[in-house]
Amino acid sequence: MGVLFSTLIHWTRDIGRLFGNARFSLQAQLQRRKEKRWEKLYEQGENAFANSNYKKARELFEETLSIHPGHIGSLDYLGNIQRMTGDYEKALDFHQKAVELAPDNVKVLYNLAEDYMAGGLNEKAVKTLKKIQDIDHHSLLPLQQLRDYYFKLEDWDKALETQKTILNQTRDAADREREKQLFSQILRSEERRVGKECRSRWSPYH
């Protein structure tokens, strides 16, 4: 009787393990099927975006998010599409959500900075570019974008200061020569600004 009881217990445990493994295997298969689905949708969305079919791309990225709500790439693309169509607030919503999920994703941070620039939120744009610089301090790209942004704002002092930093960090001879030319261009712009202010200050009609 004891042997029979012991056998029954082992058999029950084996059946339980069998069903547990089967359930786990089924869940894994369903999860993989789900992943394949959103991966395919995302790839189609990228292709549509590359072909400038932004309406179709938006639909595909939104469908991707319906399956995988935290998909960084889809959030990033949707933010770019919204900015391209002039809806800066929605662009910010998508990119800020992406940054919350991936705070050190440089690609998303660059796009967030673009949103801020497009919306005229200058301080936030500069802060975001400086954050990128902190994350990847060996790269000159955030500094170059920061310089270009100051140039666009005609903030020659800050553009000049940033360009000096770029020059100090540039090692390639050809790149250094190019950066020197830009430095001279910014310097001339600053000199013109200072000269204009002086003439205005000493003008009898001022």
Describe what is shown at a glance:
With 206 residues, this protein is mainly α. The protein contains 9 helices and no strands. Helix 1 runs antiparallel to helix 2 and helix 5 (106-118) packs antiparallel against helix 6.
Question: If you had to describe this structure to a student in words, what would you say it looks like?
Answer:
With 206 residues, the protein is mainly α. The chain is built from 9 helices and no strands. Helix 1 runs antiparallel to helix 2, helix 3 packs antiparallel against helix 4 and helix 5 packs antiparallel against helix 6.
List the topology elements.
Elements: H1 2-50, H2 54-67, H3 72-84, H4 88-101, H5 106-118, H6 122-135, H7 141-153, H8 156-169, H9 173-202
Helix pairs in contact: 1-2, 2-3, 3-4, 3-5, 4-5, 5-6, 6-7, 7-8, 8-9
The major β-sheet equals:
none
- Shape estimate: elongated
Order of helices and strands: HHHHHHHHH
* Spans of at least 5 consecutive residues with low confidence: 201-206
Number of strands: 0
Strand content: under 5%
Provide the descriptors you would attach to this structure in a database record.
206 residues, elongated, single chain
